[in-house]
Amino acid sequence: MGISTTVMKCKKCDLIFANPLPIPANIEQHYGIPPESYWSAEYFKIRDDYFIKQIQTFSDLYGRTNDLRALDIGAGIGKCMIALENSGFEVWGLEPSNPFYEKALQTMKIEPSKLQLSTIENAVYEKESFDFITFGAVLEHLYNPSEAIQKAAYWLKPKGFIHIEVPSSNWLISRIANFVYKLQGLDYVTNISPMHSPFHLYEFGLKSFKENAKKHHYSIAHYSYEVCTTYLPKSLNKIFVPYMRATNTGMQLEIWLTKN
Question: Which PANTHER family does the record cross-reference, listed alphabetically (predicted)?
């Protein structure tokens, strides 16, 4: 018999989560795997435009373009660190998975002094050290995302920005899939994956951050939705992609936070 849990959605803030939340004995149970097993071969290629859109958004919001320090939380194999460094940032990274960390050092040639092997819970940086902190496809993997945001805010300089990319709890495709399951009389939902890859523990709505901001004294400076992959036949994308763009029902929510 397998292990099951209940997937729930907060009516106040649109957060989707598991109750109870399955927590492994250690992080290596989920992420102690070769990077090649976690990502497709295409992921290991760094395009010239990788993370450039996000860097430009930061520049538009922040204004200053010199003497910038950035922190990549959940740095993986170091792709974002490389993109930030190429754009003139002094960059540090934080990665909890030992195989991902080793890949970043050996293959991507990230400087060991700049990349810390640690969870965010155990990481230590000085107060107000960074102009720019990014959680790129990371927050949904953390057991306590609210505490992670608070810790990042402690490390953030005044007027700096925290960049977050998370799965949207209002994604149209998952709602359609859940409706089909319901028609079949199945007690399934397609949201989150706490016990299998990619180990997403949460999906977030814009309200999730608005409610959290009230408690922890930060502001939402900017947000957008990305359609990303639809998993639909190409013939249907002509209909669904424009609709998701127009209705903010794409797969990914991208949000920018700043301290009050």
Answer: TRANS-ACONITATE 2-METHYLTRANSFERASE-RELATED
